[in-house]
From TrEMBL:
Entry-linked InterPro entries: Aldolase_TIM, NMO
Keyword Oxidoreductase on entry: yes
GO-annotated molecular function: nitronate monooxygenase activity
The keyword RNA-binding belongs to this UniProt entry's keyword annotation: no
Keyword annotations of the record: Flavoprotein, FMN, Monooxygenase, Oxidoreductase
Protein name in the entry: Nitronate monooxygenase
Length: 329
């Protein structure tokens, strides 16, 4: 399935794995890439830039196909050494960097000079246009359905994807709410050149999270998420557990970030993923969990999504060309 995004990234199928915190590690990324998609290692999951280089080396031992690294740049009281992580990404030899959060412009000269393809994650058309203007090679556009931060516009993919297609000149992938071949087919028809899937790959055999997390995703529906940080204008979609609901209650009643800081600590979320205590903290998951019903290998997900998308598009074209059937007299 060839599109402008497969040509740009040097991959076989227009399927990109989301760069998920604590999840985007060598085994998962390599499995997605080996199956013909683009696997992504999450930079800040690694404690240091040197650890990131070693993680890429582990992935390289599992696949020779293109790999990406996600670097999310956000305001922080004690920010990571972002410039050092950028240098580590360059030194690691990966082909693609997925940037997210802040404007990647300060790093564009360095990344372009190193020959990396820059894929920037956005949540609105205006931000996608800004990314295009500063020289990124492609965009990943996140609809309101996504896990993590959907932005503050609350625009779902059915509108956001074609609006982005109308506005951009560079390739882009659709993200948020995609978990199967029907979604990929829909994204392509709406004007995207592929899809980015996080929640679907979170629930695979190679995903380095507890089986209890995967089982909960299979059990849950599209309604089992909550939006935290809404009053702070920093909305995030997480699983609807007791901690997420408590964060919503505190902030809705006038609380401030300091009042929920301990509840949303990253260390608690990591422990949840590692140990399977589903009430230990908050954890990101998208509405697409309502479409996830099993725990296959990551490679099977890629193959299944592409095969289903091809079948859906073929059947839809056949239905249209045949036209409506008359009822018999």
């Amino acid at each position: 399935m060839r599109t402008p995004i497969t040509d740009l990234l040097g991959i076989e199928h227009p399927v990109v794995q989301g760069g998920m915190m604590w999840v985007g590690r060598a085994e998962l990324a390599a499995a997605v890439s080996e199956a013909g998609g683009l696997g992504i290692i999450t930079a800040l999951t690694q404690p240091t830039p040197a650890d990131l280089v070693r993680e890429v080396e582990r992935a390289r031992a599992l696949t020779s196909k293109p790999l990406g690294v996600n670097l999310t740049i956000l305001p922080s009281i004690d920010p990571p050494p972002y410039a050092e992580y950028v240098r580590a990404i360059i030194d690691s030899g990966v082909e693609v960097i997925e940037t997210a959060g802040a404007n990647p412009e300060p790093f564009m000269g360095l990344l372009g000079g190193a020959g990396l393809t820059v894929l920037h994650k956005c949540t609105s058309v205006r931000h996608a246009l800004k990314a295009q203007a500063v020289g990124v090679d492609a965009v990943s556009i996140d609809g309101f359905e996504c896990a993590g931060h959907p932005g503050e516009g609350d625009v779902p993919g059915l509108v956001l994807v074609p609006a982005t297609a109308d506005a951009l000149d560079i390739p882009f992938v659709a993200s948020g709410g995609f978990a199967d071949g029907r979604g990929l087919a829909a994204a392509l028809v709406l004007g995207a050149h592929g899809v980015n899937m996080g929640t679907r790959f979170l629930c695979t055999q190679e995903s380095p999270v507890s089986d209890a997390v995967k089982a909960r995703i299979v059990e849950q529906t599209e309604r089992d998420t909550v939006l935290i940080f809404r009053p702070l204008r920093n909305t995030a979609r997480v699983a609807a557990n007791s901690v997420g609901r408590e964060v919503v209650r505190i902030l809705d009643e006038g609380g401030e970030f300091a009042d929920v800081r301990d509840l949303v600590a990253g260390a608690r979320g990591r422990r949840l993923f590692d140990e399977g205590d589903l009430e230990a903290g908050i954890w990101s998951v998208g509405m697409a969990q309502g479409l996830v019903h099993d725990v296959p290998s990551a490679g099977e997900v890629v193959r299944r999504v592409v095969a289903e998308a091809e079948a859906v598009l073929r059947d839809a074209l056949g239905s249209v060309s045949e036209g409506p059937r008359r009822a018999s007299a």
